Every structure is written in structure tokens, then in C-alpha cells.
Amino acid sequence: MLRRLYALRWWMISLITIGTILNYMTRTMLGVAAPTLMGDLGITEKEYSWVTGFFQAGIMLQPLAGYVMDLIGLKLGFGLFALAWAGLMMLHGAATSWPMLAALRGFMGMAEGSAQPGGMKAVAEWFPAKERGFAGGFYNVGASFGSMLAAPLVAWAILFHSWRLAFVIAGAAALVWVAAWFRFYYSPKEHPRISEQERKHIESGQEAHVAASAARPSILSLLRQRNVWGIAIPRLLADPTWGTLSFWVPIYLMKERGFDLKHIALYGWLPWLTADIGCMVGPTIVWWLQKRGVSIVNGRRWAFTVGALLMTGMMFVGMVDDPYTALALICLGGFAHQTLSISVITMSSDLFRKNEVATVTGIGGLCGNLGILMFSLLIGGLVTTVGYSPFFVALGVFDILGAIWLWSVVRERTNPGVAA
Predict the structure, then answer these.
(1) In the chain, domain spans
(2) pLDDT band at 419, cuts 50/70/90?
(3) CATH tag for 2-182+225-409 (out of 1.50.40.10, 3.20.20.70, 1.20.1250.20, 3.40.50.740)
(4) Crossing angle, helix 62-72 and helix 115-126, to 10 degrees?
(5) CA 98, 101, 104: angle at the middle one, nearest 5?
(6) Which of 110, 279, 313, 334 is exposed most, by the fewest CB atoms within 10 A?
(7) Is the pLDDT score of 149 beyond 90?
């Protein structure tokens, strides 16, 4: 029984991971295509910052996406959002101006904001506390791996046809995944191959305070809880790193470090590879600390702190002369960011009920994407005046502040009747 149940758990999270790969590949492709796309459509850096800003404004509706999935169920909710982002992605290939591209990015952001809340809801449904970190890290590998695939796909499409082809291919691949999602995904309560005994075994490995309640989740009641903000503010401070890697690093490497399209295809995926490693290092730190008697919440705080300390290396990206040293520091930033990011994202499943997890993750995602939006607009407005170096310094400082906030605000929760 246990072996079959274990296989089912990881099959479900693998399905989520494939969806996450496609979700983040489509997000990151714009940044890789930007140098060519901007020339083709006559877009300035300031206009490009508005294009990315519209996407971040759309994706800030993550709490709504999470609430919908908590309300109507993960399978239907996530499937409908994925269907929308697949179609919108294909329409990118028809964009003829920056306002049209900005509108498409805004609507796609609304749909793609379902990825993190959906992933964490699946983890909360299928996995006990001791396995949630690794399950969360596993599906978050999809975020880095999808971003890693963006560079070679866009480079190949540009050399073979045009940047437009890359968006059409990515959207079509997402449509195939949507069909697989509706066919194969089930929650433990609905899965036709799980017995009542197996369902009870899943529930027995989960803490009492995260059990789903009969009441529908209330966004306003959640917003009054300190642990929501304890998770959300560190994401506000940390997520600008992800936005910088996705939207600005390819432009930085080409304009400031002399990379061409071939170099981007050869090396542009490396920060995402190190980010993949970070996805699993964060849970490993938590596992190691738990073996030594540290609570799961404190273990995640320590993993976040380790990542924040490593992020200080990114402060020197703009100060080194060698472009490959700069790239290595960017890779360190990708590793450090995912080490701390997966730690704080997974805390929602440690602190909140299963039918609140997607909503709480969405609130954190709103704050994280607000941070990306503000940071991206600042880069677009000031980079021609001050250069990129101050922004890399800021990224290192932000995560240290996030670690201090996480230790100061979050409270561990053991009593299901107490709001934290």
C-alpha cells in the first residue's frame, strides 16, 4: 500500500512540475527575446519596463487565483487558468506594438499567477509535513528548469524563423499539458485508485492545524493574521531577484558584458541550473536541522537566512571586470534565491489549513510580484542614468532585511483554534 501511495504522490507532483516548467518558460521567454524583439517592434528600455510592469500587475492577482482554486478545487481551477495562459502565449506571436504586447502580458500574468498557489495546494493535499519541503522544492525545480529552457528555445526560433515562433510553440506545448492535467490529476479524496485506508494514512501524516475546515477561506480574515505578512513581506523583498534574472539579465549581458545571441544560448541558462540546485538545497537544510531537533518552521527560517547570506555575493556583479565572473556571481544569486524562496513559500503549508494554502500563497505572490513590478520600473527608469550596479547591490541588501523580518514576525502554530 505505502509503495503505491508513494508513487501516486510523486506522479501528481510531477504533473504539477511539468505545468510549472511550461509556466515559467513562457514567463522568461520575453526577457530572452527582448533584445531582438525590442529592435523589431521599436521598443525602448522604458517602454519595455512597462511591458514587464503590466505582466507583474496581472500576476499580482495571485490571491484571487488562489481563492478560486480553494473555492472550486485545484483540478478545475488550475486547469482553466492554464488553458487561458496557453492561448494568450500563442497570441504573443501576433504582437505588433508595445501596447499590444503589454496588454497580452497583463492578461497572461493574471492566468499564470495560479502556478505557485496551485503547486502549494497540491503539496498540502498530498504530502505530510516531513515531505512537503522536498515536494515543494521538486515542483519549484520546474520554475528554474522552465526558465532554463527559454534561452535555447528562443535562440533556435530566432535563427530558424523569428522570435514569434518561440511563443507559438510554447503556447501549443501548454495546451497539450492542459489536456494531460484534466485527464490525470486527482485530489486524494477524489482519486479512483485510492482506498479509504490510504486516504486516512495521508491525513495521519499531516498536522491537525492544517486540516481543511468546513468554512470557506476568507481573504479578509487571513489578512488580519501576522503569519500571512510574516511570509508575504520577505517575498516582497526577495522576488525582485527573480524578476531581474527573468527580464533584465539577458539585456544586461548583451549591452553591458558584450554577449551576443550565441553566448546567451550557451550561457544564459546557467543561472537557472544553479537555481534548480537551490530548490533542493533549501529543503535539505531543513531536513538536516529537523534531524537535530529544530522545528520545521525554524528550519525554514534558517534555510532562508543561509540563502540571504549567499545573496550578498550578487552585490558585486556590476563591480567585477571579467564578464564570466559577473555571470558566476549571477549564478550564485540564482542558487541563493531559490534556496531561500522555496523555504518561505513552503511555510504557507506549515502554518495554514489546506483550504487556505492557495489563498495565502497567492497573497505572498502578490507581494512578491509587487516587489518585481516596482523594481523593474525603477530599472527601466534609472538604468540609463545610474547603470545596473546599484540594482545588484540592492538585491543583496533586500534579502538580509527579509531574513530579519521572517525571524521577527512569524510565529509557530500548534493550536488549531488560535490564529497566528
Answers:
(1) 2-182+225-409
(2) very low
(3) 1.20.1250.20
(4) 40
(5) 150
(6) 313
(7) no
